[in-house]
Specification:
The protein is an alpha/beta fold and 429 residues long. Helix content is 46%, strand content 22%. The longest helix has 33 residues.
Length: 429
């Protein structure tokens, strides 16, 4: 509900949520220790502990909050995510109950509990009502493993969205996971009037433990299986004007966020085809895509997704201003070094450590990209507007954000380089 009212996506709101929790924890400690020190000095600490409900309920609430804050640290949360996710609700409930008793209506404190409870109830009911009345309960999601490290999720639907947005999905009949919604970035675009295809939400997910691991295992055993899914969204996305309105568009997608670039490329292909068809001479944006992933089969499923989209929208040629670079960060296996060719693999031309996919402008490299240099090169172009979208681990986003900030400082200082720089970023581990 807050995301809908403010227009700020949940991945940004969660940062605020996390820091508010730490502020509450510090204030709770500042509130607690003076009372303990005072009663120890007075010599009646044991007496007040045994006779007053205030002290032990406050300690229980403080311990529950300490658990929430410590386990929310990124390196712990990522390592034990499923455990933290399950116990997060239990610890929060313990904190609220004992904090409620601890306050004992001092200074009308329970009024704030009532107000918070009303707001939380509304925030909980809003996505449920939106799901039932906007999308209904009949949609089904199908699953197929397009590589060892990528699960494709497809949901036929009649709705619209923008590149860079995400949906919350709740898969029915998946045990305890049916009670929680999971955010996934949309990796497709809605069909247009001239398209021969059907509008469908497509997601490319990197399986981990928990829900995605169970779905990947089921997709391996039964390719194409489907389950009923409840939808909530879309949320997030590029704020302000669309990326295609910038002169130069740079997409940096790493790890599980590689699919973020697909809708931006599809949108660019469609606009270029439309301009060619209508003989519109207005120059189109140059779109540069930099992808880094361990998935050795990423190029294949990435190209298949684009070719399927081009076929459905009768797009015959790819403009020269679309450049896609894929960096394979994993070690090549024996099949990759073999001279034999898989007939199902795309035509590729080897040029040193570079591989060029003939059907689409996809350049494949081994190793890691120089992301800082890519952003700097794009933003040092004189007099152009640059739109950047980045999706990947925190350390990758830090590189992009630092270089984009430096470019924006150059704009403010009227120094040489781009006249406008915009950055949209999403965190994926």
């Amino acid at each position: 509900m807050i995301a809908s009212l403010t227009g700020v996506s949940h991945e940004r709101l969660i940062v605020f949520h996390n820091w508010v929790g730490w502020a509450m924890f510090v204030l709770a400690l500042v509130h607690t220790f003076p009372f303990i020190i005072f009663h120890i000095w007075k010599g009646d600490m044991v007496t007040v502990w045994n006779t007053s409900v205030v002290y032990w309920t406050g300690v229980v609430a403080l311990l529950a909050q300490a658990y929430l804050q410590i386990f929310s640290l990124r390196f712990i949360r990522d390592r034990f995510y499923e455990f933290f996710k399950a116990t997060h609700y239990i610890a929060a409930l313990v904190f609220l109950v004992f904090f409620f008793i601890h306050c004992d209506f001092r200074l009308t404190s329970w009024d704030y509990f009532i107000a918070a409870g009303v707001l939380y109830t509304l925030a909980f009911l809003y996505p449920q009502i939106r799901t039932y009345f906007e999308f209904g309960l009949s949609h089904r999601a199908s699953f197929i493993m397009v590589s060892d490290l990528a699960l494709k999720v497809t949901i036929p639907i009649d709705t619209t969205w923008q590149p860079g947005q995400h949906m919350f999905l709740r898969f029915v009949h998946m045990g305890a996971h049916a009670f929680t919604a999971h955010p996934f970035t949309i990796c497709s675009v809605p069909v247009t009037g001239d398209s021969t295809g059907q509008t469908k939400l497509t997601f490319y997910v990197q399986p981990r433990c928990g829900l995605t691991g169970r779905l990947a295992k089921a997709a391996t055993q039964r390719p194409g299986f489907s389950v009923r899914v409840l939808l909530d969204g879309p949320y997030g996305g590029v704020r302000g004007r669309p990326l295609y309105t910038y002169d130069h568009v740079l997409i940096v997608a790493c790890g599980a966020g590689a699919g973020l670039s697909l809708p931006f490329v599809m949108e660019s292909l469609l606009r270029s085809a439309w301009q060619a068809k209508t003989e519109n001479k207005k120059p189109t944006s140059k779109i540069q895509v930099v992808i880094a992933a361990r998935d050795a089969q990423l190029v294949r499923w990435y190209e298949e997704a684009l070719l399927e989209y081009m076929e459905e929208n009768c797009i015959e040629t790819v403009p020269e201003d679309v450049v896609i670079s894929v960096y394979r960060t994993s070690r090549p296996d024996s099949k990759t070094n073999s001279t034999s060719k898989d007939p199902e693999q795309p035509d590729e031309k080897n040029d040193g450590d570079q591989v060029v996919v003939k059907r689409l402008p996809i350049n494949v490299f081994s190793g890691r990209p120089d992301i800082t240099a890519a952003v700097r090169e794009a933003t040092l172009q004189q007099g152009v507007s640059v739109g950047i979208a980045a999706c990947g681990p925190g350390e990758v986003l830090k590189l992009v954000q630092d270089e984009a900030a430096a470019a924006q400082l150059r704009v403010l200082g009227s120094q040489q380089g781009a006249r406008e720089v915009y950055l949209h970023s999403e965190v994926f581990s």
